[in-house]
Amino acid sequence: MKEGTLLRAAAVLFGREDRILPDYTQCLLRVARFRGTEKGEFLDNRQYFGHAFDLLGHAERFLLEHMPIASRFEPGSMVRIDEPAFSPLAFREAVANAICHREYTSGGSSIGVAIYDDRMEVTSSGTLHFGITPHSLFEPHESRPWNPLIASVFYRCGIIEIWGQGTLKMAAWAKELGLPRPEILEIPGAVMVRFGRRTPQKTLQSTPQKTLQKAPQKTPDAVLELLRQQPELTSSKMAPLLGKSESAVKRAVRKLRESGRLERVGPDKGGHWKVIE
User: Fold this and answer.
1) With a threshold of 0.85, does the pTM exceed it?
2) Which CATH number covers residue 102?
3) Which of 77, 16, 7, 85 has its CA nearest to residue 52?
4) For residue 262, what is the enclosing H or E element?
5) How do residues 119-175 score in pLDDT, each as one tens digit?
6) β-pairing, 190-196 with 119-125?
């Protein structure tokens, strides 16, 4: 608020769904699942108008609805290993970054999520600023949000960090799952983050035997890594992000609390988790 007048950032962050239109048509998320590898036939196509937190939630749910998860068993193990086609954490970071860095001045601007058979793309209206290039985003760099008020609120809510590490974490999360590093592209009128997907054929043909023998990340460690970034998450919300059952996540949380590595701050509703380093 400035001199008693609400700023546009307040509408973007907290505007009621029934009041967003017609004045804030740029508060738009477009999501689509295409058949094949081109923008031809839709399998699913939706549009959402709302404030930033709602749009982030809609994007996450759309990915979980449409993301294939392959399962396999390693020799000598009875434990199923789930392998998502994309990294949910990297995707969430890309959408959060799009909300913080996109262009809002045009009524026709938006954020887009497009899922194809071979890839996923997150686009946001606008360009890269402050001399930043797609290449430099995957090297150490300063945080220069184009919309600092929006970025500040997302940071205070634990959705993003503010030290220019978001794109580096996206690459690290993809690597942990054996996925290609995301690409960042400047296209006419927008910035795009492109995620290559995992395919069963690629996994079988290119994974060496020594990789198959490597133990996967244990559920408790995965829970801690996730809660470091999103301490407000519940077990039910962590389960799809980790590709685990809710009961498995609850067991991991219980073990972490018993071992003193995880602590609950506040009530079950409205509280958050504290990771003990």
Assistant:
1) no
2) 3.30.565.60
3) 16
4) strand 262-265
5) 999 999 999 988 889 999 988 888 888 899 999 999 888 888 776 788 999 999 999
6) antiparallel
Question: Bridge partners of 272?
Answer: 265
103 with 131, same domain: the answer is yes
Q: Indicate the residue type of 17.
A: E
Q: What is the domain extent for residue 181?
A: 8-213
Question: By three-state DSSP, how is residue 44 classified?
Answer: strand
What DSSP designation does 197 have?
Answer: P
Residue 169 CA to residue 167 CA, distance in Å, equals 5
- What band does 211 get if pLDDT is binned at 50, 70 and 90? very low
Written as six digits, the tokens of 178 are 């054996």
pLDDT in tens, 174-189: 998 889 999 999 999 9
Q: Is residue 204 part of a domain?
A: yes
Output the six-digit token pair for 162. Answer: 């503010």
Query: In this structure, what token pair is assigned to residue 276?
Result: 């003990």
Q: In sequence order, which ranges of 80-218 are alpha helices (DSSP H)?
A: 88-101, 148-156, 166-176, 200-206, 209-212
In whole angstroms, give the CA distance from residue 205 to residue 201.
Answer: 6
In three-state secondary structure terms, 121 is: strand
Taking CA atoms, 187 is separated from 29, 114, 181, in Å, by: 18, 15, 19
Looking only at the bridges linking them, the beta strands covering 69-73 and 42-49 are unpaired
